[in-house]
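Why run this: before we spend reagent on co-expression, it is cheaper to look at a predicted model of the complex and decide which construct boundaries make sense. The entries below are exactly what would go into the expression plan.
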Amino acid sequence: DIQMTQSPSSLSASGGDRVTITCRASQSIVSSLNWYQQKPGKAPKLLIYAASSLQSGVPSRFSGSGSGTDFTLTISSLQPEDFATYYCQQSYSPLLTFGGGTQVKIK
Amino acid sequence: QVQLQESGPGLVKPSETLSLTCTVSGGSITNYYWSWIRQSPGKGLEWMGDIHYRGSTNYNPSLKSRVTLSVDTSRNQFSLKLTSVTAADTAVYYCARLVRGALAQYFHHWGHGTLVTVSS
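The model came back. Tokens follow.
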């Protein structure tokens, strides 16, 4: 299995802050990495696919980068609606796996 | 806009079979792959398997001996069966459409999720 490790597991930030979340794969996954946002009681929502492609309708303050084993999700200016948990997911292996999540909390 | 809705019992007894159905509306089930994903506090998000509208399947090896996916194109539905359940199978179960892109496979369009509790 390809293990996905996210860091930090949680962070506190204020509105307007630039936030960076990291996802590391246990082996190279090239660019087969996706990011999701999940709010309490809701299903995850796709933000970024193939490491850096912004899903249609997702605000441009969200961006993804990286390749190989190290990936980053950046929120350029945190908005109130962005407080949520973020997950990465790899699809390089036929066994699709998720990271453990990063909770973004209000400071 | 495609919408997915899970349905099935919210309570299942240990050792019995968990059965859920996902109904797709606002679009056809054909030409796509469809997945089940579950989320429990102890294991986070876990992909269980996916099924093509023509019936070919891929399963998570950790569940392969217990999980079966099926599809009913006439009803625009696909289903999950998980046998011999234990308390560890207590989770929120989501159905989702799996997009198999050139560079990545990702879950686009999710159901709201349904909580299934395994308890006697």
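The two ends of chain A are 36 Å apart (CA to CA). Chain A touches chain B at residues 30-34, 36, 42-46, 49-51, 53, 55, 87, 89, 91, 94-101 (CB under 8 Å). Bring this page to Monday's planning discussion.
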